[in-house]
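Worked Example 4.2. Read the sequence first, then its structure tokens.
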Amino acid sequence: MTPTLRHMPARRLLAVAAALALASGHAEAKNSQHRKASLDGEVPACPLGSFHCPARPDSYAMCRPNALLEFYDPSMSKDSSVRDTSNTLVWAENVDSSNQTVYHLSGQVKLQRADQLLQSDTADYNSDTTDYDARGHVRYQEAGQLVAADHVSGNTDASHGLAKDNVRYQMLTSRGNGIATQGEMLDADHSRYSMATYSTCDLGHHVWEVRGKSILIDKVKGRGVARDATMRVGKVPFFYMPYFTFPIDNSRQTGFLTPVMSNTSRAGFRILAPYYLNLAPNYDATLTPALYTSRGPMLGSEFRYMFQGGYTGQFNLEYVPKDNGGNDGTITQTKGDTRYLVKYLSVSHLWQSWSLTTNINHASDRNYLYDFGNDLYNSSIGTLTSSVYVVGGSSWWNAQIGGDVYQNVNPFLPDSINPYNRLPRAALNINVPINHWLEFGMNDEAVAFSKKQYLFTPVNGVTTHQRNFIDGDRLDLYPYMAAYFQGASWFVRPKLAYRYTAYQLNGNYQNYGYSNGLTEWLGPNQTSPYTSRTPSRGLPVASVDSGLIFDRSTSLFGTSYTQTLEPRLYYLYVPYRNQNNLPLFDTNLMSLDYWQLFSPNQYSGADRQMNANNLTGAVTTRLLDDNGVERLSASFGQIHYFTQQRVQLPNSQTTVTPATDWSSSDYVAQLNMQLNDQWRVSTQYQWSPNTRQTDLGVFELQHRLNNNGILNFSYRYRRGLLEQYSASAVYPVSDRWRLLGSWTWSALDHKTIEALAGVEYDSCCVALRVVDRNYVNLGYSGYGPPPPGTISSRNNAVMFEIEFKGMGSSSTQIEPMLRRDILGYQ
């Protein structure tokens, strides 16, 4: 078989483009047909395999037809601005106009002007003053609302009217409706109802409603204002406010959001009442008072802004004036303390292409997330990262200067788990095309590393010992020249680079070494690997990446596809340099996967550069449909080592792991398949010919259940470290009820890591969620040994959330957790 060099049809060009994208290391988005978002029960598109799906909009598809809409005339004008220049048209079966000014109308009376339509049994109309008085089965329609009553009087020029007796009203720009003893149209944009109700539920079937002495509807602001108001569920009042505002459309409005109630093992019963402040079109705020029965009151706040010129930001603060909870024997004692959590994200344009990016995260103590923020809706977090950078760039370069600092928020482990602070840090990346096939580039970085000295007091409080870590500066220069030769069905990409890394260590560098995988103080009578305060390393890195692309037309299960076959060879040469005298600041061995087969280094960071005389052989095949959508992708590859891998990380002692004696890497295989929009399968497998054992196995299955449900199953195995089964589902029992669940089981530990069960109910105007999550606490989550026996090894959290549709945005805190635990949740 020879490479295809002829002119190819469109779908084959798509196949070639996809293959070239894979070879260059860029992932392309895959498109598929899904339904679009709407408010009639449809949901936004969420392709299978998506990690984050759009939120489900409020759906009124289950609402009954509204009786008031029976007299609604869709042919009426929606433009109220032309009322002043429009004539009033009058129809009636009988007309008495003896004085030629006041008309007495009876029998199917209709008065129409622009967007206004009044219908009644009888009416009196003054053509000079435009006063009217309608009686008997009165129905009024305008651009924004419908009103029905026994008696309506008013003036058409002033857009004023007064409705009495059996008043019913319906908002046309929303589902708001209610009844009142009296309704008054103050002008074209304002109406007031006395002794009234308001709800977005079906007329006559109010699951919930607001009852007020008066309710003012302001169409300009999109707000309703109820005075002396109570909110009821059924016939039971549960909330009273002397002054209560609520939205009547979908615009941002000041007011209360959905309340949240929950119960957690660490904080007790919790209730939150968020209040949203629409301060201006370009900035807003949310205040969230909360009460924890085991810990006391908390005030949460969020402020967001967006200004012209490229200034955006968000500030979050949680503040606990006095913690009443216990510590259960953890390292940090916080009872009686003031506690807080601060988060700040911002982007500020400075000049031309330069901006200041800020990401600040800080907790008052290492127990904070364990006690308050890690129960239900946050994943396990052991370290908080704060960064500030000035960044800039253009089409051929980008640069940044700033720093990163870290805070330990694991209550069971010492601060040694923190990465080294990188302050300051500067990076410069250059990619300059010399001509259409040759480019010059550089990846450069200069960093000052530090990790503070600290005293470590174990949980039992018996022993205390000090740990010190080496500090130093590192300069990493990585210039390269790369050529790109390619045709319609082949590519060859040689690359030649030189990597130079130099250090400036602190003054007592000779007292540090490798201990427990850390570059820390060795103490007396131990040998340090550091023989120089200014060690360095320089070496060339050469590689050639090449591949062919074959394609053919084929069919599977009666569907036509374009199949590609893409063999690929990657040769890498890096001479050996002894690097045992270099510290380990931010370098770790990366896990082998398919993309690592084509990487010039198996280590992250710049402290180690692998030696290599390697040849990677791999092949990929794909199936693309007539629209260019990749329905199947299968890859297989392996690295052959012509020389030993001599550059290794230190082991748990002060020695370095010996060089490998492998002649080849694991066989690496992966398969992704999505033959339709309902099923998706993804697998990865690694088998070692050296140990003749499986090193990695991953299987993931996802199935969409109609449009409201999803089913996930996965199995993950890494030899000696991990073997877990996971299953999650959103199962639609009916159009109103959905069951939620997820479960993760560790075969190595023979126990459940996490289990979640919940239920969602969605009706015409009310939605609710109840979720229970049981999970191992932070000390069991991969951050170190289990906590002592005085601390429960498991936590449990229950959260309840109810949303009254049309009463403002939901403040849901359940949804982020469900999106994390249930892939594809909407």
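Now turn to a second chain, presented in exactly the same format:
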Amino acid sequence: MRAATLMAMTALASAAAPAFAQQVTARSDGAEVRQGAATVRVVALTDSILRVRVARDGAMPEDASWAVDAATRAAHVAVAPAADGFATKALRVRFAADGRMTVEDLAGQVISADATPVRLDGTAFTLAKTMPQAEHYFGLGDKTGGLDRRGKSFVDWNTDAFGFGSGDDPIYKSIPFFLGVGGAGGSYGIFLDNTWRTWFDFGHRDATTLSFGGPDGPIDYYLIAGPTTAEVVRRYTDLTGKAPLVPQWALGYQQSRYSYMTADELRTVAARLRQERVPTDVLWLDIDWQDRNRPFTVDTKAFPDMKGLLGALKRDGFKVVTITDLHVARAPDQGYRPYDEGAKRDAFVHRADGSVYVGPVWPGPSVFPDFTETKVRDWYGTLFNDQVKMGVAGAWNDMNEPAIFETPTKTMPDDVVHRIASDGFAPRTASHAEIHNVYGMQNTRATYDGLRRLVPDERAFVMTRASYAGGQRYAVTWTGDNLATWDHLKLSVQQIINLGLSGFSYGAADVGGFAGGPSPDLLTRWFQIGAFYPVFRDHSAKGTPRAEPWVDGPEHLAIRRRFVEERYRLMPYLYALADRNARTGDPILRPVFYDYPAALRMGCDQSWTFTLGGALLVAPPPNPEQPRAYDVCLPAGGWYDYWTGSRAGVPQRQDGPGQIQSATQATGQATVLGDRVTETPRLNRLPVFVRAGTILPRQPLVQHSAQVPDGPLQLDVYPGDDCHGDLYADDGHSMAYTRGDYLRQAMTCTVTPAGITLRFAARTGRYRPWWKQMRVVVHGWDGEGQVTAARRPVTAQADAAAATLAFTLPDQRRAGDVTIARR
């Protein structure tokens, strides 16, 4: 009896035990395992980042990358081996008998699990992961299709997609990185470092399986654990690079059109902007500023004195950014330097038969630099010297998918040949099928590096339409040739959110829509929302109605101007976010769940609600073309109305899954999810809320970023838990900040029954800011107050109607406390 029982228990235990892979080979930094005919190598780059490479034929793919530098790829940590895999200080990796990999946190919660072993079909491959029902998916850059990728599929193939629809794919960029959010193991990310025509399926064909793959190229991906979304994004940018700190003028309002045709027209637009007192920093010139659309030329009839024009505009506070497409006109023996020098250097891409590839674009027959060669990029960068000498402030790289006319594919043939001599790759030739998705990124790299060499102590500003993972190191971006529709306004926010989650923190969309022409109400609403974009540019196409701020009369102008002005008042906050992004990778414009994970469980339509740096929450109407009232769900912790300064919202609680109630309905123990506010759309209002616990820096109004504000820096204090804020300042344009010429200071506040203590931390850096005083405004204050700083009383003014207490301090250069006592 006992023997039978023991045998039964042994059999039961054997059946319950997991079946482990029989061919796990331990490594000091990970493991290798067989998956059918493939060998899978998993290396722990850090305790939270795994690199997975697959050998099809016994040899691992070449260890080279356009996105991840050699030092980062070579990083590794020691792991603790186990019979079924290994563990780091943050993760446990297990392999099943067929080699399928499961990654867990140390509590045993599954982060990611293979649904099947890797599938090989000739050169093509498919990777499949299980897809938990609660998980949401984001990233892949500015793909269309809404905010959440779940239930959809996408292809990475940079495409000139003029007038793209809200569900069209592919479009301009290929960023093969996505995040899984809301699963049991927290947020994670997967970056497939493959430049071919890769694809991603988030339960489109099979609702239980997340799959991705490509037709060829390396099977090389990174799994990035969180558990928070912020940790995933930061670690992804650790891999692919941080966006450099932009010049401060790039955060100002920017006016563009395709095209301002003459110097006189540009002067007229600039003068009108100043006359109407619309703060503006940047004017843009599209292709018509060039001679016959040839890059690196000037139409001297339309712009007879570019240097004089740009100098005069600079004196009035305007920077000018000019377009430079990557194609080069095939113009032999015409004194056209880019072609003559490039031909002499054999710098252009070739056809398979060895001849130079020629394709029709704006200048007519054109040739294309071979940006995958370091020497070609270095030469191309020198071509910007004339523009720099004229006073051009930045470069706009358009048409760099690359776009080709008169062909159904809109681009080069797949068999066009590129020469690779860069980034640790073995020197070789490669087909356009391999290089296509990285070509635009290498164009921006050549431009950025060229500008940095030409003016080494100035920050380079480049905008691109096409790019690949890691392209944020070289350029800001925009969403391309969008449409003047309400649908595209909403889509723009979703695209910019996903760009930020994909490393591109500086995203923009053409305010008003590039094609079609906006109605007055649409353009006004777009100005309101665009004022919170990371890059704020109004741009419109030839043949469409004008879209400058004044075009629809004084009432619309007043609203548009008010939101542009508010952006300039918020410049200290924006600039601190830019500094933080350069150091951490945190996006400037974020989904609400980035800082408030519970937002995914709140009941309101949040399809384009977003935050600016986590402290400001912007909540446009979910159906922007409709006038009906809607609810805004504010995460737990308390919020203030940005415009009035008053507390906002009715608390919302959750008794169980899906059971969301107002506080007055809730009974028993319940989780407080946050507050709910009901808004009725009005054209002159965009709901914006400030997190309780925010110290928000603001400045007096200026007409451009080079103008010194007149008055004190304002610190708006919104009392609450985890109360903090940051200051950052430098000269706004040079590289001096990299040598310690900056100001960085943290501020906190603590709320007690007796009042508030405002604490200034010690500053770092040696930069002296423009402000000499600080005006502190405490919101949500009831009654009088007694303020003490450095043991001295400070005069304070209470405003009962506004529920504020305000006082002025000298600039707080040193660490110290300010006490605000109730009386």
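Notes for the reader: The first helix runs from residue 2 to 16. The mean pLDDT is 94.
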